[in-house]
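call fold(seq) -> tokens
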Amino acid sequence: HLPTPDDFFHGVVHPFQAQSYPVDAAIARIDDAVMEKATQRPIPAVRIAKMHAPVTHELLFMVGFPGKRARFSALAEALRTPAVPYLTQQVPEDEAIPPEHFRLNYNPEGARSVDPRGALLPEPPGFSGSLVWDTGYVRKAGQNWSPEDAKVTGLVFGWPPSNLRDSLIATRIEVVRVFLVRALREEAAYFRWLERGQPPHDP
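ret:
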């Protein structure tokens, strides 16, 4: 997030918890004092689905920061990376995808832009790490639907290296949740170690 006028950028002071394949993600605690002035709010745990189980043809939503859209702004003296929102659907299950993952349709040529400038969908590098939301729109048949019905159902892992204009690969949320639980337990152990005075031979 960007700092408010009376605030500054804050470094991450707590250890990162990370996991490689199949999650390929990392998290770190942000202190409450920092979050009090944050311009963005964290996602409540209740908005994270227990498992990836969208209904057939459900609309899935994500926002990413593709590298193709990034550029250096001489005026701001910073790298500008505009967000790209994307609404899609899941590709039918196939044996080529490991059970921890699912595929999302990603066809720049076939995508329709709502941007009045007609901006095309860029190639996917830069989308990895983006949350995938199950909007719940089809499940509710569009009746009395609101954004509050959406839940996080996955995390973009990557894309087929042989074809950048075919699909995105995401990790199922139940796999991500296992990582989150383990990370929270390890973090709790870390804070207990701090409370004991950081004994060098008792991590």
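The CA atoms of residues 91 and 103 lie 5 Å apart.
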